[in-house]
Amino acid sequence: MALRDGWSSPSTVDDTFFDQEGEETPLLQKHSEQHTVSPQCCSVRYNLAFMMFLGFAVVYGLRVNLSVAMVAMVNTTGIQPVFNDSESKECPASSTTSNNSNENLDQPDGIPRYPWNPQTQGMLLGAFFFGYIFTQVPGGYLSGLCGGSRFLGGGVLGTAILTILTPLAAQLGINWLFALRALEGFGEGVTFPAMMAMWACWAPPLERARLMTISGAGGNFGAFVAFPLTGFICHSMGWPAVFYCCGGAGCLWAVLWFFMVSDEPRTHPRITDREKEYIINSIGSEGGSHGWSVPLLPLVHSGPLWAIIITQMCANWSYYTLLTSLPTYMDTILHFDLRQNSFLSALPYLGGWLFSLLSGVCADKLLEKEILSVTSVRKIFTSAGMLIPAGLLVAVGFSGCSGILAVTFLTLSSTFGGISSAGVFINQIDIAPQYSGFLQGITNTFGTIPGILAPVITGQLTKDHTLMGWRKVFYVSAGVNVFGALYYTLFGSGKIQAWALKENKETVSTP
């Protein structure tokens, strides 16, 4: 690798190299006398990753609690079935999976139940994303301008407080619950862009994948913990306790977050000089905050950015379908009881969590050893994390009434889906480090559209509670995954874009 031709390195030694495809990739120069790599263990940057991991675990707990609690909240005896007896018995409940018994679904005395049909349930499950979509871009812009810690912490805290009010909103009516869930999404919408903006200041280039997948893996871990824990609380204490516990956990985390975290290494009171110098020097001048200006017109015409947008929309379709509707599938088709339902719904996210962590380590190693370019790494991990799960989702459709096969294929699908965490989902910081929070807001805005549409379409396709309806759900998800993987393979890039370089800031426009 050679130094980029004509590059004038600033005093912070922002070395840029040609990768194997001739791309300009700002990576830390190995063996440089001016860069002494700071230890990873117990470092402030890895402590930050762990705090983010816990934060996103809470975030996803707040997001999915309604998916499991819905099974206990709905009084199915008050719903008139729209399918005939033969259809309702496609998958007869066994003696060990009889979730329609009063023993399994009865709630403690005084706990209300609601006669919500599948369409209403789909609408309520998608309500979160109606709010979530509106704060992505403003959250990303303001995080890049003012620092991300207050927005990430404030978003979780606001959502946690609203979650505690969920039982009251449900009693007041569907419209109140819909509005409250939308407000929760409004609060959570700033969290991922804020995370990206913070890593633009904290993540050395050769540790990006590891740090960002550690923090982002909290989402899968949160879903893994939230599903069985929610089922247990529903069964033993009643569904309202789910929202009180999840909301309380979010408030506790926010207090710790505001006490322990700073926006950038320069302002952290407990960071060592060695680690501070390592982070600042390795990131160089292209990281940090972007100030008031953003290059709006170049963003609109950026092919690599549109590749991220379209691919994340496709990947999120299957992810949000499972996140919001998997407990309903376990309930209405496979007939698992509430505790089995919540545990088995959690299994896919355990594998996704583990593989996302492994993918981050592998991606960084490939770059560190100069085996592949940034673009090649992102494309390989994205394709593997979307094409393999697509095939497994098709297999779920063919599993019929076999609960063992269905759970196995769903678990493997989400497990291999975790590989894409080191691909397209961190690509924003590759193509525009200083604008990565703003780009995360843009890509998450588009990526939220499947969260709105998927539960509603799933409700329509499965309104008769038939295997064929759910088979269509899995086929659609698989097809969307395949399209996203192909599009990113053709148009994705890991090259830092010309409009993202600070030397070109005179060409930007202000919003």
From TrEMBL:
<keyword id="KW-0770">Synapse</keyword>
<dbReference type="InterPro" id="IPR050382">
    <property type="entry name" value="MFS_Na/Anion_cotransporter"/>
</dbReference>
<feature type="transmembrane region" description="Helical">
    <location>
        <begin position="211"/>
        <end position="229"/>
    </location>
</feature>
<feature type="transmembrane region" description="Helical">
    <location>
        <begin position="438"/>
        <end position="461"/>
    </location>
</feature>
<dbReference type="InterPro" id="IPR020846">
    <property type="entry name" value="MFS_dom"/>
</dbReference>
<dbReference type="GO" id="GO:0006820">
    <property type="term" value="P:monoatomic anion transport"/>
</dbReference>
<feature type="transmembrane region" description="Helical">
    <location>
        <begin position="123"/>
        <end position="144"/>
    </location>
</feature>
<keyword id="KW-0812">Transmembrane</keyword>
<feature type="transmembrane region" description="Helical">
    <location>
        <begin position="48"/>
        <end position="74"/>
    </location>
</feature>
<feature type="transmembrane region" description="Helical">
    <location>
        <begin position="473"/>
        <end position="491"/>
    </location>
</feature>
<dbReference type="GO" id="GO:0016323">
    <property type="term" value="C:basolateral plasma membrane"/>
</dbReference>
<dbReference type="InterPro" id="IPR036259">
    <property type="entry name" value="MFS_trans_sf"/>
</dbReference>
<keyword id="KW-0458">Lysosome</keyword>
<keyword id="KW-0813">Transport</keyword>
<keyword id="KW-0472">Membrane</keyword>
<keyword id="KW-1003">Cell membrane</keyword>
<feature type="transmembrane region" description="Helical">
    <location>
        <begin position="404"/>
        <end position="426"/>
    </location>
</feature>
<dbReference type="GO" id="GO:0005765">
    <property type="term" value="C:lysosomal membrane"/>
</dbReference>
<feature type="transmembrane region" description="Helical">
    <location>
        <begin position="241"/>
        <end position="261"/>
    </location>
</feature>
<dbReference type="InterPro" id="IPR011701">
    <property type="entry name" value="MFS"/>
</dbReference>
<dbReference type="GO" id="GO:0015293">
    <property type="term" value="F:symporter activity"/>
</dbReference>
<keyword id="KW-1133">Transmembrane helix</keyword>
<comment type="function">
    <text>Receptor for CM101, a polysaccharide produced by group B Streptococcus with antipathoangiogenic properties.</text>
</comment>
<keyword id="KW-0325">Glycoprotein</keyword>
<feature type="transmembrane region" description="Helical">
    <location>
        <begin position="151"/>
        <end position="170"/>
    </location>
</feature>
<keyword id="KW-0769">Symport</keyword>
<feature type="transmembrane region" description="Helical">
    <location>
        <begin position="379"/>
        <end position="398"/>
    </location>
</feature>
<dbReference type="GO" id="GO:0030672">
    <property type="term" value="C:synaptic vesicle membrane"/>
</dbReference>
<keyword id="KW-0968">Cytoplasmic vesicle</keyword>
<dbReference type="GO" id="GO:0016324">
    <property type="term" value="C:apical plasma membrane"/>
</dbReference>
<feature type="domain" description="Major facilitator superfamily (MFS) profile">
    <location>
        <begin position="47"/>
        <end position="496"/>
    </location>
</feature>
<protein>
    <recommendedName>
        <fullName>Sialin</fullName>
    </recommendedName>
</protein>
<dbReference type="Pfam" id="PF07690">
    <property type="entry name" value="MFS_1"/>
</dbReference>
<feature type="compositionally biased region" description="Low complexity">
    <location>
        <begin position="94"/>
        <end position="104"/>
    </location>
</feature>
<feature type="region of interest" description="Disordered">
    <location>
        <begin position="85"/>
        <end position="112"/>
    </location>
</feature>
<dbReference type="GO" id="GO:0046942">
    <property type="term" value="P:carboxylic acid transport"/>
</dbReference>
